[in-house]
Amino acid sequence: MRPHLTGNHWLKPLGYAGLLPFILLSLALWWPAPYLPADLLAQALLTYSALIFSFLSGLLWFGSFVLGQHSRQQASQMLWLSIVAMPWSWSWFLWNHFAPGLTFLAAGLSYVLLWAYERETLAHIYPQGFFVLRTHLTFAAALSLWLAGVAMLWGGV
Q: What torsion do the CA atoms of 72, 135, 92, 51 make, to the nearest 10 degrees?
């Protein structure tokens, strides 16, 4: 039986608090304040998104050790994916100079694809309730990124 999520009472509040920059910055792109340039808001959101995406890829890195006890091939694939995720999120900064709105749409999709991969490979080893939390956080972050991308495409940020 898997351990229950409630072992650490800070996990949920900190997880949801981590959504605040996603939500607030994406909303600020829709209603920018005169003293906060939209390109600065977009850069802040993209930076935060890339950092969190790299952080999440660490779950795969750890998962590769756990799964390595059962399947070397799957563990190797997971390890490489966890490593590639970091330069992938770094590349968003380069894309942002050429296609800012599309970069945010691609970043949101990246979050969902990482979540889907985890669902297939790691959800069964996570503590009970963790993947539900991970699902809420992932889709809220992805939706925020998609809203930011639409704001940038529509508003011409």
A: -80
Q: What is the pTM of this model?
A: 0.91
Residue 120 within any structural domain of the chain: yes
pLDDT at site 3: 58
**Is the model more confident about 11 or about 48?**
48
Confidence at 6, pLDDT banded by 50, 70, 90: low
For residue 11, CA distances in Å to 5, 61, 64, 85, 133 come to: 8, 20, 22, 23, 9
Number of compact structural domains in the chain: 1
Q: Which domain holds residue 114?
A: 19-28+39-155
Across 8-116, where does the E strand assignment appear?
none
Q: Which residues, including other chains, have CB under 8 Å from residue 61's CB and lie 6 or more apart?
A: 78, 79, 82, 83
The C-alpha R_g of the chain, in whole angstroms, comes to 17
